[in-house]
Amino acid sequence: MADFESEKTQDKKKTWRVIVILVLLGLAVNLVLPKMMDIRHAIEVVREMTWWAVGMAVLAIGVVYLGDGYCLHALLDTHNHRLNIFEGAMISLASVSIGLVAGGWIGAAAATYRFVHKHGARKTSATIAGILPSMLVNAAIILVSAVGIAYLALTDRITQSQLIQYGVFLLFLFVFTYGYLLALVFPKATYKAVNWALWNWARLRKKPYDPARTRQNVNSVIQAWKSLRGGSWFRPLLGAFVHILANMAALYLVFFAAGYQLNLGVLFAGYGIPILIAKVAFIVPGGVGVIEASMAALFTSLGVPKETSIVAVIGYRLISFWLPTFIGLSLSPFLTRSKAFQSDETPVN
Description:
It is a single chain. With 349 residues, this protein is mainly alpha-helical. The protein has a domain at 50-181 and 230-337. It contains 13 helices and no strands. α4 packs across α13, α5 packs across α6 (123-154) and α12 runs antiparallel to α13 (306-337). The longest helix has 32 residues, at 123-154. The radius of gyration is 21 Å and the shape is globular.
């Protein structure tokens, strides 16, 4: 329910301060993890890596953002607005990077709204482009995590307490992601709840508050969702699954490059559960530290040699998180300055 239209550009000093903190945190994690293994074995793993597989993993990460671009393309296509897949991929890259230093998924959604609206889309289309992709990706994460948890349960590699814990995490992510769809059923109650929360938040920050704008934003979200009828959500959902499956392919390829072939069940568990944990620990930007530590520990517990796990996880995070983050930050000024293209959007009945 963020006020996308009035979202302001973050102060540059604050942005760079957050970037520095994020980089330092990442460096700390990537320096601590190697201390958990025999450095000689780790060097041997790196020396014998299959580098063409690493290159394929980098290409797979490119496919991740093409999936995001297709998701945005398909969403705007339902509103008769043209956005090609490559432009959508650039918007996704820049928005995710902005979200890391400014407001998490809300900041990313607001950035997507601004970029899409700047390129000629109407407010309803831009709103749904800002909100829906992360919801669809979370749906894919929930499914992949559930498959991974089921695999661990069926192979007796998970305790009952862990099963309950992961089940609670799945429920939390589901409610957190889709809870506000109750607005479609209870619009008045939703407005009252959001109005109360934002009013108190503004009072706490000693900022002015406009309830009329809140009502407008709630109505905008409701209308955006109502526009997704007749199965028009299927193509964007396909893009979200491309995002997740390409990420999993990249992870598999990095392990393959390190000399270890993951079976499908271990891949689902080793990818899905750490990403689920990072989603629950949403206060940590990009899951830095959370994903690396939990992923390396989980793969090691599933029989992957410790040195191979740590080297592969660090390598995967370098190409799936750090490389796209800095590319996205460099794209942001370009997208901000780029001229809006002609909108072919027509009203949707």
